[in-house]
Amino acid sequence: MLDTNSFDLRRFLQGGGHSFGVWVALVAMILFGLLRYENFGSAYNISSFLNYNAMFIVISVGMCFVILTGGIDLSVGSVAAFTSVIAAYLSPFGIEVALPGAVLAGLAIGCLNAIFVVAMRIPPFIATLATMLGAKGGALVISGAQTISIDWTSNFTKLGMENAFGLLPWTIVITAFVVIALWVVLERTSLGRTVLAVGGGEDASTMMGLNVNRAKVFVYALSGGCGGLAGVFLASGFGAGQPLEGVGWELSAIASVVVGGTLLTGGMGTVGATVAGALLLGLVFNILNFENGRGVISLSAYWQMVIRGGFLFVVILLQSQLASRAKGVTQ
Amino acid sequence: MTDFIQMTGIGKSFAGIIALKDASLAIRPGEVHAIIGQNGAGKSTLIKILTGVYRRDAGDVRKDGKPLAVSTPREAQDAGIATIYQELSLVPLRSVTENVVMGYEPRTRFGLIDWKAAHARTREILARFGVDVDVTRQLGSYSTAIQQLVAIARAVSLDAKLVIMDEATSSLDDQEIETLFSVVRNLRDSGVAVLYISHFLDELYQICDRVTIMRDGQTVATHVVAETTKLGLVSEMLGRDASEIQAAGLTALSGGHGNPGEVLLEAEGLRSKTGLRGTSFNIRKREIVGLGGLLGSGRTEAARAVFGLDAVSEGRVRHHSGAALDTPAQAIALGMGFLTEDRKADGIIPHMSVRENITLAMLPRLKRMGAVDRERERELVAHYIDALQIKTSGMEQPIRELSGGNQQKVLLARWLALEPEILILDEPTRGVDVGAKFEIQSIIRKQVADGLAVLLISSEFEELVEGADRIVVLQEGRSVSELQNPGITEGALINAIAHHHERSVA
Ligand SMILES: Nc1ncnc2c1ncn2[C@@H]1O[C@H](COP(=O)(O)OP(=O)(O)OP(=O)(O)O)[C@@H](O)[C@H]1O
Ligand SMILES: [Mg+2]
Asked: Would you say residue A2 lies in a domain?
């Protein structure tokens, strides 16, 4: 039997999941970047990297909750496209209206998913596929398939450019706040633990007297809300509502979650590892950009995708190797 | 005395098949009330109606004389009814602590879960059952017995007015059952009623005050336990004459009269990370070898090692053919079978039919000219359904709809149908009623007479003593002695286990 009192770093990082590999890979990537490129660790690179990846982190964390219940949400990319248009339309009223407005719009779509999945018992894959198409269409309809510029005179533009408390861009601060809040929800609240229990066994959770439906409604609404926030970041990052963006985002989000060691069948995983997964996928692009910048090689965006796919595979392989080794140790 | 819970005229059918008709049950405050009945009699269905898992078609449920409207397990818990379901309803992926405190977590001042307090509370509750485990680890990494104790601990900790235990002792050993009984007595003395479902009639006489007998979806009678006889109960359960049952002799089986052949399998000085520290035994043709010992003595681990499921770090397993035996695939190719103790995780495929669950592993053998011989398949399945008295609406019924004991019989049928050379049975009659248990034991006996070798693990001493030809006693992963039938008594087995236990403590 294991000594219950000794501190086990591996178990701490894994949080009971299989997420050791993602941390190893993340640290390795950062070290590699720092040693190889002069400006990699510069404040500018860090801040613009985080600023750009904030939207992916946010939808990945929302997706993580959905997957933890054993579900899936394919609509997040379309939701972000849709809400970026909403945010752009609302931008003349200022950030105070545009941000909550877009998040609420995302939340509403998330609630629609929840109704399909929980009340109507439609399988999540199909239900969210429908809302994915619906939100995509909605974005095109309300925008007339055009990008919608945000109002440059409104304070909406501050979001991506101005630093909060003179420290970091608002986007990053908001993202950090969301991540920490959701981490607390998952680790320290009954609702969060129910999310995990539902993924580990839905019938068993019901029989234990847990409120399974509430947990499921929560995750779909949350994922929708996260999509809404990502839409706000998208609009602010590009200076316009982008009805055509968001294609394939749901797959990136799923990839981040899986790279973070979360079981696709649910029941096991952490917010931290998901963020690490999202950062890792973003870093691959960042490093490829630096590599292109050195002028030695020049990779097209298509090759970058291929490389990212290969990299994903390697990390997942590493993950499962480490997980089976860890198993041998503890059992 | 007014009844705490009163169920009258309960009716329930699943897709037109009647599971309950006009069933009634009255539980008084602070009594230990048993329900007995054959597999499929409707015991689990009746309690699931009480706890809101199923909705009743007809009838009336009252608590303290007032109508009780409960439509989810949560509402039942809130109404003071805590339940340990037969199919362990826990989440193996999550930690022991979570499984105990979920839904009732201790909170800090800020409303967040206080994990330190939660772990401490869980340790404290488990300590009452003599369980000392790392509560932060996944529940699924522990044995079925520990999981069952965790389920019991959860239910007992909910501060209920009624605790329902649906075959809660099925994977516990005698010592643990004793501990459970003292907890049940404590509950009773503090005014909590306990509804106790079990196939072990002896347990009834130890702790139950009254007993309700079910047969074919009906409650046939309720008695004060002290005024009944075992024979009388069995005859009411089966709906047959007492004299008829006595003539059949429900416990006539005993080992040691066979004529064992050559050694088929030999384990020598097995050591493993799973806790084996020198286990040796052999199994011969036409012989049932029992593994005796307390929980954690390494019985299941020994079986897993022999079957190639766990790696051994020292020692070896020798098959008579001389072929290597390191993986389950090799074991199966060598004609070995393993009925594991955890039917939910390793055994049944829930949405598949009874027929498919029985014949899945043997389809290649049923092939004739490239196609599965459906006729033979049906014949074979019908044979086992009949021989093991599997209660099902037909061989195409999904196995998940069968009662717990009947699922167990299907699994056993799967292995028997394969006609293995060596069969490892880990708790083969768990959850099976007294009548069917006898049938199962005699079927196994018959196949053994035809050459089958069996390695039998059972936490029921009676089953070991009467079923095995030889018993290898394990203690903390070591084989310490061997008993030979005929001549083994339960007392002798307990002595053998206890004797070595004391010596090793000293
Ligand atoms: N979900 C279901 N769908 C269809 N039939 C069911 C379902 N649940 C139970 N049944 C049927 O109802 C009958 C009663 O089953 P139940 O589980 O109550 O038996 P039991 O008395 O608990 O038996 P055991 O001792 O084997 O646990 C069985 O014939 C079973 O096949
Ligand atoms: Mg039952």
From this structure: no
- Structure-token pair, residue B140: 């699924």
B39: Cβ below 6 Å to ligand 1? Answer: yes
CA separation, residue A151 to residues A94, A148, A157, A236, B147 (Å): 9, 9, 8, 10, 61
Q: Which two tokens stand for residue B203?
A: 């347990």
Q: Which two tokens stand for residue A135?
A: 């939100």
Q: Is B451 part of a structural domain of the chain?
A: yes
Cα–Cα distance for residue pair B418/B337, rounded to 1 Å: 8
CATH number at residue B432: 3.40.50.300
pLDDT (tens digit, 9 = 90+) per residue, B462-483? 888 888 888 999 888 888 888 8
Using an 8 Å Cβ cutoff, are A233 and A72 in contact?
no
B window 132-171, beta carbon within 8 A of A: 133-138, 141, 154
Ligand 2: centre distance to CA B343 (Å): 14
- Do B27 and B155 lie in one domain? The reply is yes
Token pair in block for residue A144: 């007339």
Dig out the tokens for B313 from the structure: 């770090």
Residue A184 lies in domain: 55-277
Omega into B486 within 30° of 0, i.e. cis? yes
- The H-or-E segment that residue B44 falls in is helix B43-50
- Asked whether B103 and B183 are in contact (CB, 8 A), the reply is no
Which tens digits make up the pLDDT trace of B95-113?
999 999 998 899 998 889 9
B47-93 tens-digit pLDDT: 999 999 999 999 999 999 899 989 999 999 999 999 999 887 899 99
Q: Does B229 contact A at CB distance below 8 Å? A: no
Mutation choice for ligand 1 from B7, B10, B12, B14, CB with most ligand atoms inside 8 A: B14
CA B115: distance to chain centroid? 32
Rounded Cα–Cα distance for residues B390 and B385 (Å): 5
Q: Is B403 in the pocket of ligand 1 (CB under 6 A)?
A: yes
Query: Are residues B269 and B159 part of one domain?
Result: no
Distance in Å, alpha carbon of A136 to nearest chain B alpha carbon: 37
CA distances from B220 to A24, A169, B22, B33, B197 (A): 65, 74, 10, 15, 16
Specify if B283 maps to a domain. yes
Using one digit for the tens of pLDDT, what is the confidence trace for A238-254? 889 999 999 989 999 99
The pLDDT tens digits of the residues spanning B216-250 come to 999 999 999 999 988 888 888 888 776 766 655 44
Q: Looking at the structure, tell me whether residues B291 and B194 fall in a common domain.
A: no
Task: Domain count for chain B, please give it.
Answer: 2
ipTM of predicted assembly, 2 dp: 0.82
Q: Does B304 touch chain A (CB under 8 A)?
A: no
Of B53, B73, B134, the CB nearest to A1: B134
The whole domain housing B183 covers 5-243
Choose among A184, A211, A267: nearest Cβ to B93.
A267
Angle at the Cα of B90 from the Cα atoms of B87 and B94, rounded to 5 degrees: 150
Q: How many CA atoms lie within 13 A of A214 on its CB side?
A: 12
Q: What is the 3-state secondary structure (H, E, C) of B192-216?
A: CEEEEECCCHHHHHHHCCEEEEEEC
| pLDDT tens for chain A, residues 1 to 331 | 333 334 445 454 444 456 778 888 899 999 999 999 888 888 889 988 999 999 999 999 999 999 999 999 999 999 999 999 999 999 999 999 999 999 999 999 999 999 999 999 999 999 999 999 999 999 999 999 999 998 888 888 888 777 777 778 889 999 999 999 999 999 999 999 999 999 998 989 998 889 999 999 999 999 999 999 999 999 998 889 999 999 989 999 999 998 888 888 888 899 999 999 999 999 988 888 888 877 767 777 788 778 878 887 887 777 777 666 554 333 2
Three-class DSSP category at A116? helix
